[in-house]
Amino acid sequence: MSLKTITKNNVTSLAELVNLRQPVLSDGEVLNPIRDRHQARLHELALPTTRDEAWRFTDLSALTQVNFTPAPSLSLEASQIELNQLPEAPESRVVFVNGRYSDRLSQQEALPEGLYAGNLANLPPDQKAKLGDYLAKQPGQEEVFTALNSASFQDVAVIWLRRGTVVDVPLQLLFVSVPEDSAMLTQPRCLVVAEANSHLTLVEEFVSTVEGCPDSQAMAYFNNAVTEMWLEDNAELTHVRLQRDHGSAFHIGKTAVTQARDSRYACHTLNLGSQLSRQNLDVYQTGPGTQTTLNGLTLIGKAQTSDIHSTVIYDHPHGTVNQLHKCIVGDKGHAIFDGRVVVRKKAQLTDAKQLNRNLLLSPKARVNTKPQLEIVADDVKCSHGATVSQLEADEVFYLQSRGLDKTTSQNLLVDAFAAEILQEIPVESLRTAIGQCVACRTISY
């Protein structure tokens, strides 16, 4: 069954495809009511097309042509994910394979008592009793792909910090997709709860077992991921989100963040893989004095499409948001950026900065950018902007005049363009790895 006919009606056919009634791997009492509610919601929804304003630059026709089957439950050997392991987190790792928790690949020996990292099945009873206040409670649950995930996810990654817990080592959350002989659909789901005065650095990665660069080809699969994050008073979360699915994959992700008073959220988004990817990043303020930092780097080529849609809504005073997203686009790649910052009447003394910068490396590369500020408050300091450019000939000539060849000169300029984002990543091994990807992909373009 493909998605082709669904665009004419609704997503019920896809909901039936993933067999919502199969047994869950964690806690059916908690998950089944959520799945039933969103399954009913799917009857009212349609897949978006380019006629929808939020999707007018993102064509899903390639996705609708693929016949998907539910991802099977598989067991991997540690050697199969060895290249994806962070040296900084050898005993601080949670692994999901095809959307299901893998206890044998996960390691939590370095984690303190106040942090739970695992799946829903092993969540302590007192935290499980509070789950109904958080899971599938973020705004935006009515969006079609979010509803699809809520109607059919099979397991949940849960990261829960108790009050006052400070974690000194990064925690790696690894979602691994294993391509099979037929195209498959996976539904990764994650819930992060940071109670008051807690602190964590979380590295959320989406990878496949296909060897080679993220644009390598293999059997297609569709990753439909949803992550919900709740930051309570004075909590601090540094979030690195790395998407490097292989080059035939489809990836649509939703990250929804709610920030309470004086909380601090920093997101570093890195998009390298998939033939078509989209991330919806929504941040909601529920108290004054919040700080939000959104950094992003998109690196695509060939015929890849990468779409970043972000929304930050401020409804309380003394909030700050600083957003910088950069795109490096080569060959026939297509990048989309749609950033929206909403400053409502109560959000006086807000400081908001938004900037999208794009570098095109070939004549056929293209970008659509739409930074937006919607301001109702009258005592704010806000700015936004966008740039689209190619490598400057005089800058390349200057480097060549100092003895460098043309290719090396171009690579240095691209490296410098990406460095502003990469230097903010708090994990050194990731900074190095992504920097190598920038250099490698630039040469191929």
Describe the structure.
The chain is α/β, with parallel strands linked by helices. It has two domains: 4-287, no CATH class; 392-445, no CATH class. 18% of the residues lie in helices and 36% in strands. It is built from eight helices and 21 strands. The chain has helices at residues 12-17, 28-42, 61-64, 125-128, 144-152, 393-401, 406-422, 428-444, and strands at 69-70, 93-97, 100-101, 115-119, 157-161, 171-177, 184-186, 189-194, 199-208, 221-231, 236-243, 250-259, 264-271, 276-285, 291-300, 305-314, 320-329, 334-343, 351-360, 366-375, 381-390. The strands form two sheets. Strands 1, 4, 5, 7, 8, 10, 12, 14, 16, 18 and 20 form an eleven-stranded mixed beta sheet that branches. Strands 3-2-6-9-11-13-15-17-19-21 form a ten-stranded mixed beta sheet, covered by helices on one side. A hairpin with a 2-residue loop joins strand 2 and strand 3. The longest helix is centred in the last third of the chain and has 17 residues, at 406-422. 47% of the residues are buried.
